[in-house]
Specification:
five-stranded antiparallel beta sheet, Umud Fragment, subunit A, eight-stranded antiparallel beta sheet, single chain, alpha+beta, 29% strand, 6 helices, 2 domains
C-alpha cells in the first residue's frame, strides 16, 4: 500500500505541476471530488481493517507479555526488566501512507462540501467589472443562491432563487467550461435586450443611467466616465464612453454561438432575444469587456453562483465588504 500511495502522490504532483505550468487545463472541482473519494476509501480501510488489525496485534503483544510474566512468576521471578509499552505504541502508530490519506479525509471532505454547496472563493483576473470589482479582488460566491447543484456535473437538484437582472454572477465560460467568468446579468429568459449607441435597453425601454462624475481607471491610467445604472433592485456603477463608436460582431472561436439567429448586429450595436434557460451577460466596464455581445448567451447549467462579497484585496484593504 505504501508503494501505491507513493504512485498516487506522484501522479497528483505531476498533474498539479502541468496545470501550474500551463501544459494542460485543470478542473479543480473534479480534482477535489477525486481526492475526497480516494481519501475516503483509505479512511474506510483504516477504520474497518488496518486500525483493528493493529489493535489486535497490540492486544496480542500484551497478552503474550502477561503470559510470560505469569510463567516467570511461577518460577519465583517477580521482577521483569522488559517493558512492552514502547513496542505497543509502535504497533499502534499509523503508517505515513495512511496518515497522509485517511488522516486528510475529514479536512478534504469539509472543503469539498463547503466549496460545492455553500461558498467558493474566486479571484478577479481582469478589469471587465471595474469599477464594481477590481483586479486582485478576492470574492466569495454563494453556491446555493440559485439552487443546489451536484458537484462536477453541475446538475441542479434543488431550486432556490431565480436569477435576477443586475446580479453579479460567476459562470462557466461557454467557449471553455473549464474557465470561470464573472459578469453582470443584463437580461433573463424571454427578454429582448439591446445595446445600441452605448445604451442598454430591456424590452424596448432604456435602462436608467445617471452620471457620477469621473473615475480614474488604473488599468488605462486615465480618467473615465462613470455612471450609475438602475438595472436591478439596487443601482450599480459602470464605466462607459458615451461618445465611443460602438462596434460589435460575434467572435466566438468555435463558430456561431448557440441561438445566434436570435441576435441582430448593426452599426448601432446589437439586439437579442434571450432564449429560455439562458442569460445575457455584460461587464460593468462596458468598453473593455468581452461578454455576451461577442460570444452569446450563458446556459443555466453553466451557473456557478452569485458573487456578493470581497473578502480580501492585499493591495487595498478598504475593498473588503459587500457590493452591488
Amino acid at each position: 500500500m505504501s508503494a501505491l500511495t507513493g504512485i498516487l502522490y506522484a501522479v497528483l504532483i505531476a498533474y498539479l505541476g502541468g496545470w501550474y505550468t500551463g501544459q494542460w487545463s485543470g478542473n479543480f472541482a473534479l480534482l477535489l471530488f477525486i481526492l475526497t473519494t480516494v481519501t475516503m476509501l483509505y479512511w474506510l480501510a483504516e477504520r474497518f481493517h488496518f486500525q483493528p488489525a493493529r489493535e489486535r496485534a497490540a492486544a496480542e503483544l500484551l497478552a503474550n507479555d502477561a503470559k510470560r510474566r505469569e510463567a516467570l512468576a511461577a518460577q519465583g521471578i517477580a521482577r521483569v526488566d522488559s517493558d512492552v509499552e514502547g513496542a505497543r505504541q509502535e504497533i499502534l502508530r499509523q503508517p505515513w501512507w495512511l496518515d497522509w490519506t485517511a488522516g486528510l479525509f475529514p479536512v478534504i471532505l469539509i472543503v469539498f462540501l463547503l466549496r460545492s454547496f455553500l461558498f467558493e472563493p474566486f479571484k478577479i483576473p481582469s478589469g471587465s467589472m471595474v469599477p464594481t470589482l477590481l483586479v486582485g479582488d478576492l470574492i466569495l460566491v454563494n453556491k446555493f443562491h440559485y439552487g443546489i447543484r451536484l458537484p462536477v456535473i453541475n446538475k441542479k437538484i434543488i431550486a432556490n432563487h431565480d436569477v435576477q437582472r443586475g446580479d453579479v454572477m460567476v459562470f462557466r465560460f461557454p467557449e471553455d467550461t473549464s474557465v470561470d467568468f464573472i459578469k453582470r446579468v443584463a437580461a433573463i429568459p424571454g427578454d429582448e435586450v439591446a445595446y445600441l449607441n452605448q445604451r442598454l435597453y430591456i424590452n424596448g425601454q432604456p435602462v436608467t443611467v445617471k452620471s457620477e462624475g469621473d473615475y480614474y481607471d488604473e488599468d488605462s491610467m486615465r480618467m473615465r466616465n462613470r455612471f450609475s445604472e438602475s438595472l436591478g433592485a439596487l443601482p450599480h456603477q459602470l464605466l462607459v464612453d458615451p461618445n465611443r463608436q460602438p462596434y460589435f460582431q460575434p467572435d466566438r472561436k468555435d463558430g456561431p454561438f448557440p441561438f445566434q439567429d436570435q441576435c441582430k448586429y448593426s452599426p448601432e450595436g446589437v439586439t437579442c432575444k434571450v432564449p429560455a434557460g439562458h442569460y445575457y451577460m455584460l461587464g460593468d466596464n462596458r468598453d473593455n469587456s468581452r461578454d455576451s455581445r461577442f460570444w452569446g448567451f450563458v446556459p443555466d447549467e453553466n451557473i456557478v453562483g452569485k458573487a456578493f462579497f470581497v473578502w480580501m484585496n492585499f493591495g487595498n484593504f478598504k475593498r473588503i465588504g459587500a457590493f452591488n
